[in-house]
Each structure stands twice: as structure tokens, then as C-alpha cells.
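Hello,

Our lab assistant flagged a job as stuck in the queue for most of the afternoon. It eventually completed. Since we weren't sure the result was trustworthy after the delay, we are filing this so someone can double-check. Below is the sequence as submitted and the structure that was eventually returned. Let us know if re-running is recommended.
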Amino acid sequence: MQKLENKLIEIIENDIWMTNILKIVRDLNLNDCWIGAGFVRNKVWDEKHKKDRTELNDIDIIYFDTSNLSKEYDLQIENKLRKLNSDLKWSVKNQAIMHIRNGHQQYTNCNHAISFWPETATSIAVRLNLENQIEYIAPYGLEDLFNLLVRPTPKFDLAIYNARIKNKRWKEKWNKLKIETEYSDIFDE
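-- returned structure --
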């Protein structure tokens, strides 16, 4: 695990574009704030496929703040980010309210919230701390991400997962991916 952790940190530290985005987001001073999903996943998959950066649909910023549960606040943060960098499509979601949209019990923090995301390789988020060190959360670990394995998380609806995999067409972009369409018994242990 330590080897993969070091590799993830090295990959991100060596990407000025990513570290600049991490600095922008850190400076928002949001509680339990991370950038996840494709921001991390695509970078590692691009590295493993020796590809240039695959364009992101958006930059997924998550945070956890029970003191302000309005969707309007997320939009205010997105607008602030657009003023700082209008070239990027920002997506900001307070995970303290996302359980409502997703029909789950309330999440306790961002790590808990991303354990409900669709794929194990997507359920990873990073941030830059005040000492300019990369930190990450990964409720299912980093192995699937680095092994190019796409599998559903045990908490996500399998039909929605499979439709998502079909629509994303990831295998066309990253041909070395191994995609599972059923729940893995690895989570039953």
C-alpha cells in the first residue's frame, strides 16, 4: 500500500496543473475538502497508458459542512472558482447533504461519502494541506486504480453502474482497463 501511496503522491506532485488546482481549492478553506473522481482517476490511467492528459468533464470538489446545507452555497463557491480560473468546469458538492439526493443514510464525512461513489477506482480524492503535502482518501484503497481495474463499489446500484460504464466508454480511451460488471466477493470478507 505504501508503494502505491507514494506513487500517487509523486504523480500528482509532478503535475503543475494539478498542484495549482489543489492550491486554489485548498485556499477556499472549506471543511474536509477534497478533489476526487476523474481528477485523480484519469491522471493515473493516463500515466499507466502513457497518454497525455485526458480532458475532464469537470473538477469534482467535495467538502463536508453541516453548518451550511444550502445548494446555493455550492453555486457561490463554483462562481468564485470560475472567477479564479474560468477555463475549468467546477463542480462543488457539500457531502453533508448528498445523501438526500442519493437516498442513503447521512454521511459522516467525505471519506464515508465517497464510499458510495460508483467505482472503486473513482472513490479516491486528494487535497493539498497547509504544508503543501498531498493527502488522499480512498475507502477501497488504491489497488484497483493502479491495476486498471474498474469494479462497482458494494454500496452503489449495479444497474446504474453498468449504464454508467457503457456511457463513459472508458475502454475506448484506456484500452488496458479491466471492467467488471458484477459485484466482487472481495467486499464480503
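-- support follow-up --
The delay was a queue issue, not a problem with the job. The result is valid. The domain at 2-147 is CATH 3.30.460.10 (Beta Polymerase; domain 2). The mean pLDDT is 95.
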